[in-house]
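INTERNAL TRANSFER SHEET
From: sequence group
To: structure group
Subject: Small ribosomal subunit protein uS8

Please process the attached sequence and return the structure record in the designated field. Keep the field labels unchanged so the import script can parse them.
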Amino acid sequence: MISDPIGDMLTRIRNGYMAGNKNVTMPYSKSREAVVKVLIENKILADYQKDTKTLKKTLIVKLVEGRRRPFEIKRVSKPGRRIYLSNKNFYKVKGDQGVLIISTSKGVMDNKKANKLKIGGEIIAEIF
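Return from structure group:
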């Protein structure tokens, strides 16, 4: 059993880029799907699809071809230590070139969208 499914997903994506893979497969969950949708909106991932034909549901994520390799996906809020911020306390990632993924009461979104809605939440990850 995986103790941190979101951290596992981010590691699979990072390793997929480093290995030069085109797709990454992982077990399906609604929270993983929500994070993947935010990553697609920010052009970090190309596309995804759910595979429900097998006994265990899987999520197949298509990576962006030609993406620069040395980029970072860093898990911020972990199961042992949750990090929450209000929209006034969001920090800039790499001079505002990076993205914070935030779980809010309105769903999972990036820091720019959360700032427009003036809501805070749990900082899931930062990507730059």
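Handover comment: Helices lie at 5-19, 30-41, 111-117. Residues 5-63 form a domain with the Ribosomal Protein S8; Chain: A, domain 1 fold (CATH 3.30.1370.30).
Transfer complete.
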